[in-house]
Amino acid sequence: MKRSGKIKWGNLWVGIIVTFAMAALLYSSFRGGGTSIFERKNKLVVYFGNVNGLVRGAPVWLGGVEVGNVRSIKFVNLDEKRRIKAVISVKKSVWESITADSRIMLGTIGLLGDKYVEVIPGTKGLPVVEPGTVLPTVEETGLNAVLTKAPKFIATIDSTLTNMKDITMALAHGEGTAGKFIFDTVLYDQLVAVLEQTTSIVSEIKKNQKRIIDRINTTFDNTASLTSRMEAGEGNLGKLIKDESLYNSLALSAARIDSILAKLDRGDGSAGALLNDDRLHEEISNLVVRINNLVADIEKNPRKYFKFSVF
Predict the structure, then answer these.
(1) Can you count the helices (H) and strands (E) in the chain?
(2) DSSP bridge pairs for 69
(3) Is 53 helix (H, G, I), strand (E, B) or coil?
(4) Angular region, 57: left φ>0, alpha ψ -120 to 50, beta rest
(5) Which of 39, 87, 268, 310 could form a disulfide with 263 if both were Cys (CB 3.0 to 4.6 A apart)?
(6) Strands 59-62 and 114-120
(7) pLDDT tier for residue 90 given thresholds of 50, 70 and 90
(8) Rounded CA separation 87/45 (Å)
(9) What would the pLDDT profile of 136-156 be if each residue is shown by its tens digit?
């Protein structure tokens, strides 16, 4: 049977429409989310140090409502905080909410970890930003921040648990001071002995506490009695404090001693001459020498000085 090479226009139009619809659906799926591909959008630029898995076509939210998508992501590596440049598109119908103090934040959808871009609305009344403006970023907060830091937190917990396991194993084998403290009975016996000695010492202190306190109180009482008698002028110390005649006698005695010492210093009298006259000193010295010589000679020749006769 011979086929005709002609195609009906109706069939052709149906094919064109279906092809266009499929292309539109594919474009919408790749260009992002729940926004219409026919809505007019403006672009914003944002720099990230780390996009944490953000991909092209990811949704853009404004106040929790999807208003656009991520158009492009590329490396620029300007500095530590500006390594990746992302261009996002936002519907013009909500553009008035993006003012001079608006900020950009990365977010995480649920526990699956899909990323999105959150545009934080600015203050009403401030100037609306121009298309192509570079908006600054802020750190993630709340559950998003927890989910972002969860891998590091889990790694830290795992490391801590590993260390605890090593410590408990060392303790179980009696290693280190803590292990010996648990398994070595010698240390336990020494601690028990120390505690017993401490208990004994405390008991002795308690027994002697009353006696010590009584002695202290007696000492205080004697001191108080002594000070009272001194204030009343009793005894030598009391008379020394209260009786002026004793003070005057002591002062007179001191004056006399001072007078005698002054005379001695001037060389007055025999004692003063003995202390200050060099000639008298020399004569006394010579006399002492002669007496010594005489005594020595008597010891050697007693018959020279003493004559004995029996008959």
Answers:
(1) 9, 6
(2) 59, 89
(3) coil
(4) left
(5) 268
(6) parallel
(7) very high
(8) 5
(9) 988 765 455 555 555 666 777
